[in-house]
Amino acid sequence: MDDVTGEVTDLLQHLIRNACVNDGTPGSGQESRNADVLTSYLEGSGLDFQRYEPVPGRASVVGRIEGRNPEAPSLLLMGHTDVVPANADGWQRDPFGGELVEGEVWGRGAIDMLNLTASMAVAVKRLTAAGFRPEGDLIYLGVADEENLGEAGAKWLVDNERDAVAADYVVTESGGIPIPTPSGIKLPVVIGEKGTHWTTLRVRGTPGHGSSPLLTDNALVKASEVVRRIDAYRPEAQIHATWRRLVESMGFPPELTDPMLRAEGFREFCEALPMVGLARLAHACTHTTIAPTVVHGGSKVNVIPDQVDIDLDIRTLPGQTGEDIDAMVREALGDLADDVELIVRDHESATESPADTPLWDALQRVAARLFPGSATVPLMMMGATDARFFRRAGSVAYGFGLFSQHISYDEFSSMFHGDNERVDQESLRLSTELWETTARDLLGA
To answer: What is the pTM of this model?
Structure first.
């Protein structure tokens, strides 16, 4: 095993074992532990270092190789240092053990996204050691709090320390997972992300004694019908430009391509696809999705509940407003709409960067060199990453990486926030070489 692979493997294991679990509560995460690891790893390399900790325990690290030309384009490589919770009961191995088993590193964050955080750090350190003097600045950001909307991480940095992280081009998670097609391997580059419109539906009823439920106005019973209607709601497919370009780039036969570019019957087509990962991707990329995820209600086993709150994870497409989404929710509720209060918890519009940029061209050239026979394709991501803050600030921001075919697309997809998360060492090596070569290609040596 070469030194690069061993180095990035070791760093990833340390990041996993620190268990920086961000569950959304103020005291969780403690990303300062991973910030310490990254600082220890990078210090002495010649990088210009800064550390930011707007909330105790949530520290981010910024390292910079200063460019020779202040007017030249700059590149930011950004990886987050926090992870989501893991239930050990569903795992074959310790989620925070960072075990290396048959060429795979196991643990929470191995895919999302400590693998890229580690490989980016290794690449920047290697470039510094080699005396890399780019035209424009190369910046490394190990950022906290991504798994909790970035409030104390990327969002805070963009809002409060813009000069420290400002860059013309940004790369973060989570593309680069190979998709086999009849015309060869396609590597998706995330150029945009759906927006969020997280909403709580408050359903009211009338309290009463649980021993006499006949003819009562039970908010929980009413809420069950609300959930059923939300689940049964079928928004129309939107065949937007990014989706069209993706499909047309894939080289699928007409019997697969044509239904993917036609709104009518799109959902039924997705449901019939043999690849679950592709089906979910196709549906989410072309639809406003509304998923009931959390229910709060009732106070005591013998009391008819008078209020139930239903949390909806709503992901929006480019161009959709909050008013558009509220109208869709009311349409789904039908004659129950007047009985339900809509409480919008968070709204962020979808973001997108163009695919005809020097960064796109550089990633395309480098990926083809490291993964012969592959081609990059644009993708609209269904979830959200810290890239959205940089797009809104004027940067071109993509999600990418470079993964081997050791683990299938469906397996990769299932591991994001799922059980048995792991990454193979070949993918770690490929991603490290990707960052190093892209920096040289885009910024010049």
So the answer is: 0.91
